[in-house]
From TrEMBL:
Residues 588-975 form the Tn3 transposase DDE domain. Belongs to the transposase 7 family. This is Tn3-like element TnAs1 family transposase. Keywords: DNA recombination, DNA-binding, Transposition. Residues 8-170 form the DUF4158 domain. The lineage of its organism: Bacteria, Bacillati, Actinomycetota, Actinomycetes, Mycobacteriales. InterPro entries: DUF4158, Tn3-like_transpos, Tn3_Tnp_DDE_dom. The keyword NAD does not apply. Pfam families: DDE_Tnp_Tn3, DUF4158.
Amino acid sequence: MATRVFAGEELQRLREFPEISCEELFRYFTLTPTDLAFVAPQGRGAGVRLGLSVILCSLPWLGFVPDKVATAPPVAVARLAEQLNVDVAELRSYGRRAQTRSEHLRLVTQYLGWRPAGELALKELDEFLLARALEHDSPTLLFRLACEYLISARVVRPGPVALVERVAHARAQAQRETFDRLAHEFTPERCTQLDALLAVDPVIGMTRLRWLATGPAEASATAVKAEVAKLEFLRGLGADEVDLSVLPAERRRFLAAMGRRLTGQGLERRDPQRRYPILLTVLAQSATDVLDEVVQLFDQAVSARLGKAERRMRDDLAARGKTGEDRQGLLDDLLAIVCDPVIGDEEIGALIRGERIGWERLRAAVAQAVPRLPRDHGHLAALDNSYGYLRQFTPQVLSAVGFAGGTAATELLAAVDVLRELNATGARKVPGDAPTGFVPTKWRGYLDIAAKSGNTSAYRHYWELCVLLGLRDGLRSGDVHVPGSRRYADPAAYLLTADQWQLQRDEFCRLVGKPADPARALAATVDELHDAVGELEEVLAGGEGPVRLDDAGELVISPLTAEDVPAEAIAMKAELTQMLPFAPIVSLLIELDTRTGYLDCFTHAGGKHARSPELKRNLIAVLLAYATNLGLTRMAESCGISYDLLAWTSEWYVREETLRAANLTIIDHHQRLPLTSIFGAGTLSSSDGQRFPTRGKSVTARALSRYFANEGLSTYTHVTDQHATYGTKVIVATKREAHYVLDEILGNATDLPISEHATDTHGVTLVNFGLFDLLGLQLSPRIRDLGKITLYRAGSRAQVETDFPHAGPLLTRKVNLDLIADHWDDLLRLAGSLKFGHATASLLVGKLSASGRQNALAAALKEYGAMRRTIYAAKYLSDPDYRRRISRQLNKGESLHALRRDLLYAHEGAVRARQLEAQTEQAWCLTLATNAVIAWTTEYYGLAAEQLRRSGRRIDDDVLAHISPAHSENINFFGAIEVDIDAELAQLDPTGYRPLRVRDTLF
């Protein structure tokens, strides 16, 4: 059993002393006076004292004592020998009799208060392991947790084989416990339904399990109806009523992952105690996922038609403008006659009908007359052309999905109920008492005109379109929510409850440095605003410079001049680049694994640990297949590894969570490199979107003529000032990037203390400005047309202009401090919910940004955000060094965009994955390869710089700070890919690195 988890050499390592870190050396191998008295009583020999002290220090460190005490780390033995004032060589004579070591271990356990692994201790361990096995199924993780538990319980660890057997017992017991907790769900009827999921259904030509797992490829009427059919099928099985709360969340996640990856045949081969919990979990999760998919596709399909209508409206307006040129010319001529004071009133008519204008021109103008446009310029009328298309799927969506909301959505929800009834009965006429209060003013005219003319068909069309658009907008803002949904749930569910917030308020305020008292908080913010405006006042008072006022009192902001990179830095980069070795990308990944072990982060999704000797080779091939966009088929042809093996490795090992862990390992390694701290302190980061074309249909792909010939998507990446990419997210190219700015910052798992974040204009909203400050962070964007944004003041206009004669007139609006104060605690609770991981930032930011003024919390947050934006703008405009610093950071992100494009070279850089999950995994593979290139280049730049310094060259850190590792001149991405780990490692020198090249040579 143990050898299935650990190979023989691994088991042997678990019995021996590991390497020791500097921290562990000082923490565990420092003897107190009491310890010295224990190990060195009168008459005890030097070797015995040294051996006993090794046992004394090793037990708290490892939780056990290896049999061969003399093989303890030499630095640890030397430290103990120095404290005991004995010779290190004395340890060689210790432990020749096994009884001596056993007796000494017994004395140490008594002295330290430890106990052997007896029956009671092992029973407690089994209970602990069962609880953890219900959360995690990985045997290696459970083994590590067991070791940590035994140390905390002061129990001497048994042998690794015995411990692995207890882990295996706990995993088997967890499987039985899982089945027992769900046993009430496994009625004969339910088991029959679950087994039927694995049989091929002749109607759809596949198993229902595979059918449920196959997501839509586009937001079309057909796709919406297909997802509605899935939803009705799941509800027919009662999937929406299954309660899995009896299982830990991690257990549910594990079972769902297994269900998604196992084939129908693989599940059929599993015994019922394992098969049924997996299928039930997949069924319950699918009920939520498909419901979210239906609502999302409804939103996307309606929005697509609305966008198409807008483009049609613009074309119509352009055509209307061209045909109206003659009438405009006539109007100009008429006004010239009518407004001429020299022409008498009695002469005007003759001039218009006669020599100046003429009847022919007047009659032509009357013939060209067109009806006046409604307030929306015909947008809703253009959408009416898509009414038949929308009717293909909207009745099914309204029938299958239930909606709820607050008081702001009362009339809209009543209208949805009326529309649902009309669809069910087939009635065509909208009842006279149907709600219309939810209809925006710009569209109300359509209903009024249709009602006055008695055109019930037109009224039905326009009223129904208003209902659908209102429902879409309500779902986006959170005014309308969907019971049972995860993505469209009640916004209140995303926040900490009042009781939870009561317990965590003080801790949150301490973490972010914000007072709970709104009066204190706003007083400090007002002072900060006045200080910032005062700095801007000094700049504007000078009257010259890049930021100044023109003669009309308008703000003038001259663009920053290009940053001058010192010639010395350019020459230094060229010299260092010549010294770097050439390496194929596969060699780089192999070499980096020897120093970081990042490939060990790729664990089996099913919890299996047995790793074949070829696993690392296969993983590298899969990572490169996705990072370079070759794909598994072309990679199999390039490297000689079979496609089936690569596909299996990708399915079970390469997923977002393992890619994130491996990426984190590389970033941690990069952070520890000497050169990295010269690039930046790691406190500043930036984010930006990068567009990639797509091939084939995908729900994330959109047409954007500025970037793509056809369709494409965006990857939104977060980059530190040390050139490391710590976050990647695939988003729809037409969505606002600002919604996703906070996601990776709050989820940042690196050790980097990020406190400031830069974006371009796309990452800026008032909501973001407010949330960043409430979270104790600084948002520092580079805003296009900064001089045109609205700036806010805290006091009266007269007072502000008196205090700040130059800057004061720029503050055109007064901030609503009372609104902010009234909702200050709710604003803190909102930020606290994000800080403590209770909600996803992009979800909340999107809803808050879409909320109208009637949402008091959103309005208060936007007011506070406007205040913070004013403070930032004043500081930004006052300090050219600050502006340049932000620009420099954004340029680092752009350089990494270029490197990613170099990497993703195959198939013209077009992403061919169609599902969001596959696209996300490919984006993370690209990020991992990018960070690997950055870490490798940084490391070798550092080695080359040190070699120059040893030769007597003076190299200043200020010069090295201008050298970016985001380049690929020394790395080959192309050609045949041969993944031969042993051959690559043989090319490294004894220090573990490739030899630097001699300058002015090719090798």
